[in-house]
């Protein structure tokens, strides 16, 4: 097998399609599944229902009538997702680890695309990545297929050249305040957990030297 880099397939500012499976919601009623109008408050035997599911004849239920059943976990294709950035993963160059794949021309801070504390339910991004405008189908870590667009794009939004000025890398859990660990250290000063970590490391080093 031959590894194929994403930068060799797609390009900056390209419109692509995203194919995947949506988040599963389980067995749902008609109100949640088809957004039908709720019946009045005093309705007999429940109000989150379809009042009439069809005429006497033809004596069967049409497929167009909203019914309860599985919601989510469906195969879907979303079209026209614009690529805002194709970034290189964490790599070594001239003996130095390069992590600044979230820097821009206007924000020269040396920072990684991974936000403070990692992406919730995912973790750290170490490989090459694609940044798309908007959201994607499915849950975290779900496999997606990215494909070339089948359409000819003529709209101004599709042909626009994107120049990112700033990428927010603050924590996605709670109210993120700091862009990098260096920012946090400069503002907060040394924390108790850092002091404990240093003490444990010093104690371990002392024990090792005493044994030797």
From TrEMBL:
Matches recorded under PANTHER family: 60S RIBOSOMAL PROTEIN L3-RELATED, LARGE RIBOSOMAL SUBUNIT PROTEIN UL3
UniProt record similarity statement: Belongs to the universal ribosomal protein uL3 family.
Record GO cellular component, one term: cytosolic large ribosomal subunit
Superkingdom field: Eukaryota
One GO molecular-function entry: RNA binding
InterPro entries: L3_arc_euk, Ribosomal_uL3, Ribosomal_uL3_CS, Transl_B-barrel_sf
Protein's name according to its UniProt entry: RpL3_1 protein
Entry keyword Ribosomal protein: yes
GO biological process, one term: translation
Keywords: Ribonucleoprotein, Ribosomal protein
Classification of source organism: Eukaryota, Metazoa, Ecdysozoa, Arthropoda, Hexapoda
Organism: Fopius arisanus
Magnesium found in the keyword field: no
């Amino acid at each position: 097998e031959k590894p194929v880099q994403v930068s060799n397939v797609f390009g900056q500012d390209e419109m692509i399609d995203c194919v995947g499976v949506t988040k599963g919601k389980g067995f749902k009623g008609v109100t949640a599944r088809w957004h039908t109008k709720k019946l009045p408050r005093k309705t007999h035997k429940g109000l989150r229902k379809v009042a009439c599911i069809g005429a006497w004849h033809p004596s069967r239920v049409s497929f167009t009538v909203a019914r309860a059943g599985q919601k989510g976990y469906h195969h879907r294709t979303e079209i026209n997702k614009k690529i805002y950035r194709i970034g290189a993963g964490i790599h070594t160059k001239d003996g130095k680890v390069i992590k600044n794949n979230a820097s821009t021309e206007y924000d020269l801070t040396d920072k990684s695309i991974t936000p403070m504390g990692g992406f919730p339910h995912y973790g750290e991004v170490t490989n090459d990545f694609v940044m798309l405008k908007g959201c994607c189908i499915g849950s975290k870590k779900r496999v997606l297929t990215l494909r070339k667009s089948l359409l000819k794009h003529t709209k101004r939004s599709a042909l626009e050249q994107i120049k990112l000025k700033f990428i927010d890398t603050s924590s996605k859990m709670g109210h993120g305040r700091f862009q990098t660990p260096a920012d946090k250290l400069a503002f907060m000063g040394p924390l108790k957990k850092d002091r404990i970590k240093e003490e444990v490391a010093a104690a371990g080093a002392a024990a090792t030297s005493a044994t030797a």
